[in-house]
Amino acid sequence: MADKVRWGILSTGNIARQFAAGVATSRRCIVDAVGSRQRESADAFARTHGIPHAFGSYRELIRCPEVDAVYVALPNSEHHAWTVAALREGKHVLCEKPLASNTAEAEDMFLAAEKHKRVLVEAFMYRSHPQTLAVMEAVKSGAIGELKLIRTSFCYRTRRIEGNIRFDKSLAGGGLMDVGCYCINFSRALAGAEPVKVEVTGHLHESGVDDLAAGTLTFPNGIVASFTTGMTVHADNTAYVCGSEGYIEIPVPWKPTKDKSEFTIARATPPRMDAVGQPVPAAPPRERRMIPVELDLFGIEADDFAATIRDGSAPRITPADSLGNMRVLDAMRRSLGVL
Predict the structure, then answer these.
(1) First-residue to last-residue Cα distance in the chain
(2) Could you report the per-residue pLDDT of 247-273, keeping only the tens digit for each?
(3) pTM (2 decimals)?
(4) Are 83 and 111 in contact (CB under 8 A)?
(5) Contact of 18 with 298, CB cutoff 8 Å
(6) What are the tens digits of pLDDT across the range 57-92?
(7) Superfamily grouping for domain 5-126
(8) Beta strands 210-218 and 197-204, pairing class
(9) Which CATH class is domain 130-255+259-292?
């Protein structure tokens, strides 16, 4: 056990439960402690997940000598304060997305990580998954020709508004921060650049947060990305990566599993006007690529983090990547009037 990264989890909410269950499948990590504002909640969480230590405050957890790394699963508005506090206590930090409430907070968090010589990574777990890595490699290898267009969707309909942190403006809630950030991150990663133009339109909930948004990003290399996101609407939640010679369909881009890890590379049929005097090609071929995956999504993410702090491997999400995402989120939220 000594060589494994020992995690402490801040919070006992839904994403904390998913992370704890995922780490149980990892090769290089264990969850050693959990902290909550209520000791009863921490105790119950610890019993459920077989965690040795439970604390009735966040401060106790980040000071625990048995903890090497802290997973911050708190509301967005608390990411900055508790990440910086954990870094000061000498802990490495994996902080849930979005990294902070705004770019200024994110910059301060990375300055703290540098000062205390600890690793800070934003928890976009899908970026560690073999399916995502395989899609990025397919694009890089020219499987669809020159990348031109990226289309993504991440929406859900929730009826639980009262007490929902996602609908609380003071907690930096809203659809863009909750799930739209995935679409932005994915588009920037594939484009390999920061956008030179950002546009967004949307709808504000009566609570003051964005509950529906559609945006576009234009990149200096000519790539265009569009996305839809929301908390009060259903959508297919897919991703399409379109090139000059074909396109990639990703049916489950955000939370791929080992049972449904796949994507399809398709070739488009050229317009009939381009086929005058030539045989019309048959239906476009479709190549379905299945990605073998042995571990849970969050377990893979935890092992990636372990490789960074133990082996010196580059983090899957770099500080520059996180700051770039926050700048786009700031610009869009400012445009919608929620920042």
Answers:
(1) 45
(2) 999 999 999 988 779 999 998 666 666
(3) 0.94
(4) no
(5) yes
(6) 999 999 999 999 999 999 999 999 999 999 999 999
(7) NAD(P)-binding Rossmann-like Domain (3.40.50.720)
(8) antiparallel
(9) alpha beta
